[in-house]
Write a structure and sequence with these properties.
Blueprint (H helix, E strand, L loop, with lengths): L3 H13 L3 H17 L6 H13 L3 H10 L5 H13 L3 H10 L5 H12 L5 H13 L6 H14 L2 H12 L7 H8 L1
GO molecular function, one term: RNA binding
Keywords: Repeat
Protein name: Pentatricopeptide repeat-containing protein
Length: 184
């Protein structure tokens, strides 16, 4: 009988294939195997299962698994937030974010990136960016790329200049992804 580690590796392999239908099929099979074989769920297995459902477009199933977890980790929260944002389910993403107890830079970036993809929510991206700094998180490449996208969507030239100024004071300016954005 497969253990939780083996099943989590199967899930990770199925999502790396980049085939939505295959990932959806494997995810359901592994999920049912967990219950049939009474495999003890752990963070690694639940995270892989949530990620598999998110990548196959089944955020509803991912949420069910997430809700079953006794202790939710930030990796699962981030995956679920990304899935909700990609499907335009902003309120659901906000709910998961607000209930995430131990936030990190990646979960903040998921919110900023998700908001910045939609003009009507780009202002919220800036609000999360400001909160992130207020709470003392160190901004990274993804943070700057997403917030610059939000500023562009809003045509917020002054805020964009401030963000650019912050970026110029970091070692991140050397990164190609950001360097190309600032040349535009």
């Amino acid at each position: 009988m497969p253990d939780g580690f083996t099943l989590s590796m199967i899930l990770k392999g199925s999502t790396s294939v980049n085939a939505e239908l295959y990932s959806r099929y494997i995810g359901k099979q592994v999920h049912s195997r967990i219950f049939k074989c009474v495999v003890e769920g752990d963070d690694v297995l639940y995270t892989a299962l949530i990620d598999s459902y998110v990548k196959s477009g089944r955020v509803d199933y991912a949420r069910r698994v997430f809700d079953l977890m006794l202790e939710r980790n930030v990796v699962c929260s981030t995956s679920l937030i990304t899935g909700y944002m990609n499907q335009g389910c902003i309120e659901e993403a906000e709910d998961v974010f607000s209930k995430t107890m131990e936030k990190d830079v990646v979960v903040f970036n998921a919110m900023i990136e998700g908001y910045s993809k939609q003009v009507e929510n780009a202002k919220k991206a800036i609000e999360v960016y400001i909160d992130m700094q207020r709470l003392g998180f160190k901004l990274n490449i993804s943070t700057f790329a997403s917030i610059i996208g939000a500023c562009s969507a809003l045509a917020a030239f002054e805020i964009g200049q401030q963000v650019h100024g912050q970026l110029m004071k970091t070692e991140l300016i050397e990164h190609v992804k950001i360097a190309n954005i600032t040349k535009v």
